[in-house]
Write a structure and sequence with these properties.
With about 100 residues, this protein is of the alpha+beta class. The chain has a single domain (about 1-50, about 60-100), classed as Alpha-Beta Plaits (2-Layer Sandwich). Helices cover about 40% and strands about 35% of the residues. The chain is built from 3 helices and 4 strands. Strands 2-3-1-4 form a 4-stranded antiparallel beta sheet. The longest helix is centred in the N-terminal third of the chain and has 17 residues, at about 15-30. The protein is globular.
């Protein structure tokens, strides 16, 4: 299984609005692509939050083909929506991981 991991640092002033958007719009829209089997949204603890609050969004997919389809067909538009809403008030760092069984 692959985990598409997005670590985000969000300015404190947009935290509530951003969380609402993530939970009610962004994550459901991503799941509607049919390319992922599940997701989680986490708050990273024991971090200095003076310059932002760190969250992690994880999306689970079965294979590289599903992940690649998301990246090529859906990711650009979804990232653009986030930038339009929140501009430079958050930063994202994306990684792809594979579970070891």
């Amino acid at each position: 299984m692959l985990i598409y991991n997005v670590t985000l640092k969000v300015q404190p002033g947009i935290k509530d609005e951003w969380l609402k958007w993530m939970k009610e719009e962004h994550m459901p829209e991503l799941m509607q692509t049919g390319l992922f089997s599940g997701n989680k949204l986490l708050h990273l603890l024991e971090q200095d939050e003076s310059d932002g609050i760190t969250f992690i969004a994880q999306y689970f997919c079965e294979n590289m083909e599903a992940y690649s389809a998301y990246i090529s067909d859906h990711a650009p538009g979804m990232r653009e929506k986030g930038q339009k809403l929140f501009g430079g008030r958050f930063v994202a760092f994306r990684t792809l991981m594979e579970t070891i069984e």
